[in-house]
Amino acid sequence: MSGVDFDREIAQIYRDMELYLIESMQRNLARHLAEEADAGLRYPQWQAEKLKELKRYQRENRQIISSRTRGLSDRVSEHMKAELRQGSKHELKRYKKALGKGYKSAKAMRKSFFKVNDRKISGMINALQNDLSAANTAVLRMMNDTYRQTIFRAGMYASNGVMTETQAYDMAVKDFLERGINCIEYRDGRRVNIADYASMAVRTANQRAYMVGEGEFRKSIGETLVIISHHATACKLCRPFERKVLIDDVYSGGKPDDGDYMLLSEAMKLGLFHPRCRHGLGTYYPELEDINHYSNEENDVSDYGRYNRAHIENMVQRYKRLTVGSIDPENVARYQAKLREWSARLDNSTEDGIINLYFGRKGRGIPLSPDRDIPETVAAQVEEATTKITDDFKDLERYLEPISFGNIGEALGEHRFSPSTGTNKITLNKKAFSNPVVLKKSLNDDFLSGLSYQTDKIESLVAHEMGHNAHVVLALKRSGLEYGKPLTPIETAIFDEKYREITQEVYMAAFSDESFETIRDICEKELGSIAKSPRELIAQSFGNYYFGAQKQRVAIKIVKYFKRELIG
Q1: Contact present, 460 and 541 (Cβ < 8 Å)
Q2: From the centroid of its chain, how far is CA 499?
Q3: Predicted structure pTM score
Q4: How far, in Å, CA of 444 to CA of 442, rounded?
């Protein structure tokens, strides 16, 4: 079983455990709802009785967790050891290929390298097992808290006499069922579902065990130089190290004087091999380009495919929770129908295909002199656009450097956030903005070609870039970062995570339970094909909301989201 397959299996174990725990809570509370109806107990008495039974409920939950995770510790341990051995085999294969290409080994390979003492990864195994044990404890605590909260909320909802007891229960527990058991909280306050956490923890540990095996082989042949793999959608933290040669001082015992290269430990401090990182490394063999330039097999799978399938899997689990955890027959029937719908989509989903979700806005190169002065009317329109938006979002002005005109290639406008300075900068294409007639024609052509929404206002381009700015500003605020202060690598990682979280929240604000494909179709229909990109969807929404010929439904919802999050 591959690391990815095992990672998914772990996630499924915890998803199943989540459903069993939710079913336990529903069963315990539903039973007493029936008793309340038979005995004529009112909610104060019902609450008191249910709290008395809390210990029995807690015991039942402990048994569920124990039964669902029985033997998992041993399996995790064995799998990590297998990953270590597989890492060594991977490097042995590359080594033999290098020999066939003419590589001369510095020293003879030690035949004993496969007999790596398991103590080399015992600490990693113990750390992972402790993390999973702590996660299980957090699950128990959250289920206990949710049980109590549901009792009191159901009582409050039912006391007004507007809804039945079953409807009151379903309303009390709905928010929890929507989110699931998101009991793991990171230092930045972000909460993740137990299944996602367990999957990430196991995947990261297995990756490191694999690298330990690779490192042991390198030690056996006396090599310490490594080259980092690459893939098309690498994140900002990893991209600087792709195809780069490093000294492996982490797994292979390399030293600074092994070459004029950065240490692997330093690259890792800067973000390489972060959680869920898909990069790998291999022994560097000079002058053997066909061996050195490689990518991991799973990296050939598109991010679109991953995101699409993950979105569907999350929706399936969401409606499983709602179906299992609800009591009211009408609600259960509705959730079951949604579950069948999303399960069918999962059966037909795939991770195949290549698509770039983050393509930038492509303008037209306008054949005018780049040093021509910007007309006063155009400058006034730019000022009008920024004024209109900052009237609604006063903070955006404080989080933005003065807007300038310059040479930015074919793009009509560019927004850039620089972690090295901690500042935002909007640059407008000087060549394009020097001729408003041609620029307006370009806007019309973009609409007719399906690239963008209908507008003839130059201001919409400025509003588009201001949308990018709003995205960055919200991420900075949530990260607790000060504007104009350079970001450390750790702060950059936190910022990037918040930036991605906001993108996800935007989709939740604008859509309900549409499929990923349907969402992309809606975005394209209302805001143009550029809006199929998640980050461009936000920018297009700002442009359309403030200066489009007709405000689109999606744009209204997304700008409303930013008004709520940035203004309150």
Answers
A1: no
A2: 9
A3: 0.57
A4: 5
